[in-house]
Amino acid sequence: MLYHVAQCPLFAPSRDAYLRAARRLVDACLRAQERGGGEADTRAAFLLGGAGVYAVAALVYRALGLPDFARPLGKFRELSEVCAPLSFLECGSDELFVGRAGYLCAALVLKQRLGMEVLTPAQIKSICLAILESGKQYAVKKRKPFPLMYSYYGTEYLGAAHGLSSILQMLLSYYEYLQPADQELVWQSVDFLMDQEQNSNWPPELGETIERENELVHWCHGAPGIAYLFAKAYLVSKKPQYLDTCIRCGELTWQKGLLKKGPGICHGVAGSAYVFLLLYRLTGNSKYIYRAQRFAEFLFTEEFKAGSRALESVYSLYEGFSGTVCFLTDLLQPNQAEFPLFSVFV
């Protein structure tokens, strides 16, 4: 959050103060990581482990003009070997929070922010091939009528947090590294997921039926997160059906996206509102800025304060106020706005 706000020109007078505060936090995280903090099998995890620590450290150090940014960058690069084995995690090796998709997502953020490819082409191809092979094997084993599928702790999730949509999104983000036959498998899987739509939403896991019309309209599970896959599919293919699907996600979010679970970006109001900023960047339609502004205003109402659940992780980027601050900052610069650490425009 501190890094994100520091990058906004409107906060330029406080930029150095924010970055120094960010460095104090990231230095502490690096020390914990170097001491062996966290579980060994999450060393390559982006959102829940070591890869995220090294990636953010590199961003903060670079923003401060410190040559030390090369060290965490090197540590990050070394982690590609950790996620190379097909099943390096028992819980599921491919999803966004701890798996290969997250590691590729981190490399994408670093490429965007540093203006350089952090991983070699061989490393990228190796990880993409592992994701593809893992998905093929699982789909065959479970006799799926589509080519790629994955599970996390035994559940076949579809959403952005742990599911198929963000894994496919990362494969599309590295589309040029895929062989034509594998590109076709990805598109078949994207189209399969599009067919799982139920009243402009998606169930949290494969085969479920949405029983309530306002069930799970979240970034983590449901249309507000799956929208990013179809945005990426549209940007890569230019096919209008993917943009149309993304727009339907936004319409549902406008109708059902004011959530009681808090202000955050994982399953909160700010996470829903980010869809409107995404659609503004895709379409240039100013109505989406209006909608994002209305959601932002709702965060400060007595109705929201009275009806929202108490936060357990107040400062969390995804569950707490940090992600909300990122959203409010992006509302000031909608032409550059994007969901934190989850860009579709790279």
Mean pLDDT: 95
Describe the biggest sheet? none
Low-confidence blocks of residues: none
Strand residues, percent = under 5%
- Broad shape: globular
Structure summary, number of beta strands: 0
Helical run tally = 14
Protein model, in words:
The chain is an all-alpha fold and 346 residues long. The protein has helices at residues 2-6, 15-34, 50-63, 70-78, 100-114, 121-141, 164-173, 180-195, 223-237, 240-256, 269-283, 287-298, 302-307, 321-331. The protein has a domain at 208-345. Helices cover 54% and strands 0% of the residues. The radius of gyration is 19 Å and the shape is globular. It holds the Pfam family LANC_like. Belongs to the LanC-like protein family.
Main attributes of the structure:
mainly alpha, globular, 54% helix, 14 helices, 346 residues
